[in-house]
Design brief:
Layout (H helix, E strand, L loop, with lengths): L3 H12 L4 H17 L12 E5 L4 H10 L8 E3 L6 E6 L4 E7 L3 H8 L6 H11 L2 H4 E7 L14 E3 L6 E3 L3 E4 L2 E4 H4 L11
Parallel strand pairs: 1-2
Antiparallel strand pairs: 1-3, 3-4, 4-5, 6-7, 8-9
Bound molecules: zinc ion (2 copies).
Length: 196
Amino acid sequence: MESLDDLLAMAETAHGHLCAGQILGVRMALFGLERLGIEDPRGADRKRLVTYVEIDRCATDAIGLVTGCRLGKRALKFRDWGKMAATFVDLPSGRGVRIVAREDSRELARRLYPHIESKGQQQMLAYRELDSAQLFTEQWVRVRVDPAELPGYKADRVLCPRCGEGVNFGRFVEVEGQQLCLSCAQPELRYWVPEE
Ligand SMILES: [Zn+2]
Ligand SMILES: [Zn+2]
């Protein structure tokens, strides 16, 4: 595994800037991988890991970078819970470790660097130095990843008879004998409206 500095340089390039969230995310991912005993997540161990993230903020990018788990590979799962937390799952054993950033780490950063005015700068310095136990809480969990949610799963694709768009396995609902896409089955849940 690369050093913290190397990973932060990679995170900065990928994310567009270096910020407290990148540092926290890199540290969180390193901590999770260490707990699972995964040393080469983007190489030899790449099929062992699925990561659930619970927030869509800066740290999420860093977690994806360090673990190699990406949305497009179906190895990064997003739960929109607004928590600075992630669960790193070792697929062969079904064991995972859920790691949560401690709320009081901001206060620790403030106390470590009271002479620095910017909270972001305080946190960027402190989050490099603090122990994992000062930054995070951890909990061993079991995670049952549905086979259809695993990377590489292949199954039927259907055409929605209403809109004609193709839909991957499991993402359709049966309505009056027809297999409709979610958007046609429940238009009220659409995130878009057609332009007039
Ligand atoms: Zn950021
Ligand atoms: Zn449709």
